[in-house]
């Protein structure tokens, strides 16, 4: 291990005496759980996202990026685990501290960004199936993905230009912990709260409200699928609030009221508990968007049948999965509407698009 040089931290000292017991008790359990569950779950989710890309479904682009952001953070968890087990003493160099911190924040805000992209894409597919079709192409998805990654990387470069390691009163080198909060962090936290939580949450509410309104009025959508869509939409909102809400609210509280060590010590445990909740996003994403899909259940049944067939050397009949629709389906419906307007009125087309949009919810992460 490469130790930090004294000149790096001699002018950066944490003056507060904080009880870090939550790091030794709760954090290791969460990090190990998320790593053990999140790594295989996200690898499987990445495979399903790849299948979407393979059939030219633009959602696959967003899903791949979302899963990659989760995996990058999961790979940094062993370093954070060692850090908390050594009583918050960072034994690596400052560059690795910055990289791990960047992966933490990138996971939060890139995940939020691509969740918004997925919700907007579904909104346009269901509510405006023809009007904004050009916004739902593979090329558009790639451009949007590049913009999101570039924005977040540039933001991190601006935010993390300060020294991110400090020395506490017990001579432990702490990483990404400043108590009380630094002056330069206030405006950054206000930006995170507004652009990283309030604005994306508003987009999610707007998009899913529009989807639910159209699905509720649709007479061509099966009741079972309506229930499934409502369940997934409500679950998405709840998980967004649980994983990201407490952390951003406490960021705002710290920026407004944390002026001394006494307040920092008071809010330390609940703030770090909220930070641990953001870590569960790595598990919640694949569980919600992959394993709640009916078609995914059938895929797992096929995988299980294949394994049994290998073990028993017998032919086991598997259930047929729903055929995966692609954007080509939209073009066929649109062409039919243009050629036969008297046979296919607008209401019928919209209902057809609703059905297609519902069935094109990705096998990876839905809505």
Automatic annotation (TrEMBL):
Keywords: Cell membrane, Disulfide bond, G-protein coupled receptor, Glycoprotein, Membrane, Receptor, Transducer, Transmembrane, Transmembrane helix. It is found in: Cell membrane. It comes from Eublepharis macularius (Leopard gecko). Its main location: membrane. Pfam families: 7tm_1. This is Ovarian cancer G-protein coupled receptor 1 isoform X1. The gene is GPR68. One of its GO terms (biological process) is cellular response to pH. Coiled coil: none annotated. The chain crosses the membrane at residues 29-50, 62-81, 101-120, 140-161, 190-211, 232-250, 270-292. It is a multi-pass membrane protein.
């Amino acid at each position: 291990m490469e130790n930090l040089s004294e000149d790096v931290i001699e002018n950066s000292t944490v003056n507060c005496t904080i009880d870090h017991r939550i790091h030794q008790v709760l954090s290791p359990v969460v990090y190990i759980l998320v790593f053990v569950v999140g790594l295989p779950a996200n690898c499987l989710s990445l495979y399903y996202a790849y299948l979407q890309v393979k059939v030219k479904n633009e959602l696959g682009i967003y899903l791949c990026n979302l899963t990659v952001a989760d995996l990058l953070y999961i790979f940094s968890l062993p370093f954070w685990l060692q850090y908390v087990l050594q009583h918050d003493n960072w034994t690596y160099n400052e560059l690795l501290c910055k990289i791990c911190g960047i992966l933490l924040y990138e996971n939060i805000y890139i995940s939020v960004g691509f969740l918004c992209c997925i919700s907007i894409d579904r909104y346009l597919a269901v509510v405006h199936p023809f009007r904004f079709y050009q916004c739902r192409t593979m090329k558009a998805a790639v451009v949007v993905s590049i913009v999101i990654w570039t924005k977040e990387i540039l933001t991190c470069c601006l935010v993390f230009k300060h020294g991110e390691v400090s020395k506490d009163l017990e001579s432990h080198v702490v990483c990404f912990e400043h108590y009380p909060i630094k002056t330069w962090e206030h405006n950054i936290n206000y930006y995170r709260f507004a652009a990283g939580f309030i604005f994306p949450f508003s987009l999610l509410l707007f998009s899913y409200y529009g989807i639910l309104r159209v699905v509720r009025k649709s007479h061509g959508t099966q009741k079972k699928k309506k229930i499934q869509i409502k369940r997934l939409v409500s679950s998405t909102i709840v998980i967004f609030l649980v994983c990201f809400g407490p952390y951003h609210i406490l960021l705002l509280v710290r920026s407004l009221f944390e002026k001394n060590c006494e307040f920092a010590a008071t809010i330390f445990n609940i703030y770090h508990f909220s930070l641990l909740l953001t870590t569960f996003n790595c598990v919640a994403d694949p569980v919600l968007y992959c394993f709640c899909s009916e078609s995914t259940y059938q895929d797992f049944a096929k995988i299980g049948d294949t394994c049994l067939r290998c073990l028993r050397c017998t032919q086991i009949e598997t259930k047929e999965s729903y055929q995966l629709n692609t954007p080509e389906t939209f073009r066929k419906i649109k062409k039919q509407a243009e050629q036969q307007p008297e046979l296919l009125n607008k209401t019928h087309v919209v209902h057809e698009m609703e059905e297609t949009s519902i069935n094109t919810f990705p096998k990876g992460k839905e809505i």
